[in-house]
Amino acid sequence: MPVNYSSYRIRNAQRSEQWGALPDSFFVELGVSLGDIIGLQTQFQGDIVLPGNPDYDEDRKLSNPLFNYYPIMIAYCMVESDVSIALDFVRQQNLEFCLRSGGHCTAGFSSGPGVLIDVSNLNSIVVDAEARTVVVGCGVKFGDLNAMLNRYGLHVPGGECPDVCIGGYVQGGGYGFTSVTLGMNCDNVISMKVMLADGSVVEASQTRNRDLWWAMRGGTGGNFGILLSIKYHLYELTDVFGFALIWPLSNQPDFEQAADVMMLLQEQYMLDSQYGPELNLQVSLCYQSIINAGDPEGELKPYFMVRGLYVGSKADGMDAIAALQAMPGCYTQWTKVRRYEKMNEMLLNYPQGMPPITTMPNEDKACRYVKQKLTKEKWTEILAFFPTGKVNKAYMYLEFYGGKINESPAYESSFIHRDVAYNAVMDVFWYEEEDRPAAEKYLADWLALIEPVWNGHVYQNYPNLNAVDYAYKYWGYAVFALSLIKGKYDPDCLFSFAQMVPPIVYDGAEKPDEWQMPEALQVAFDTEIDFSGGIAPTPGALSG
Question: Which of 113, 292, 337, 432 is most buried by a 10 A CB count?
Fold first, then answer.
């Protein structure tokens, strides 16, 4: 190979030639000059994708086709320096921008009409098996992380969907099938590497920039800086016991039968579970057409399902679910022992996906945290509501909390939801626009049904654009500290979007009675930003 050969230089020359052939009107419409775009690509290790590029229409898409944005460019960052270059570009050009790691934000904040800074290629995974830690890039998918950790017999609580990336997930808390046993994903963060608005890089940990570490574990992505990588504490975990129980949900006797199961779950399995934190449960209401593996596909019918895993032996796991199996109408689809990576997949898709869909539809979603116990009558009403919508166009589930999640004090991090029994979630789907009003009405009616029993808060990893007073719903009184910390680390509010942490909701003159900043957090907030171990800001970095 000639010593002066450079694939980057050849790529950049080809890009310049392609873009140079475009009419001047193209760049006028973009609001960015040809020279500036060529200059950006020349500095970049990653790729710049513009409208009209063969890959643009696919690259701009998010996981949910409901959000159909057309960014003026997509900047695929290959290395951390690309992130700094992209940030500097949008500042100098005064352009709107947004951040994307996996594109799964349920409110569509992963894209927009401006510059899309994509960090999905920051996807390195470095395991230290002896120390039981892993350092992962923000673009790592949980399917990839679980596959890597499986080789070592190690684990960190993570996303159930294999395509979800770590960057946004951890900043919203991060619930998974082992969270009752091992805590939320954010509870297992040792440190974070974060790029601030001026391109500087800091470490956020318990001992360095603790206020930022506190804020980014629950304060949601894109508020304080760009998360580059995370260091996690790992646990030894190999085989787990999993199970799938199912009941019909088609008529009034079925609804009452399922309500009896919910009453049992409420008395023995929620909050202070009689079966310990080793048992992780989820309840699902969805349509199924295959009940046993190998059966021919039949008619789609609504079912009430209890699935979960037990971090322990099969014998102890069987003992834990025996009371549920004894309930009238229960059918045990399967009980198995598998490695966690395989069990996570089975719980969602075996013998059939929940719900069974093959092409991603438009989706809207809402959730409500519930702490109080419900009457059998209320459970019957909720369960009877589910089949009233269009067949296979809704999916309701309850993510059980308790155990390690609830052991953490409410303000140990900005993920405050530490006293709830479960997160009740409803997803609705449609393919044709004409079906959307009915789906949205169904979701609104469900929210009205849940209204009397919810605690006023929602899981910030399931944001909804229609959330009124979102700041209190996501963060409660922690929003006062979050707003101060945002002002410290992002003083010019460069990172902004529809449901960002409000820049200033409290000026420090008089603290509300409901909130007292923990002493360690107050000390950290009063301390100047620590750039040791990172990259200090360049003088004048924010000028221009």
Answer: 337
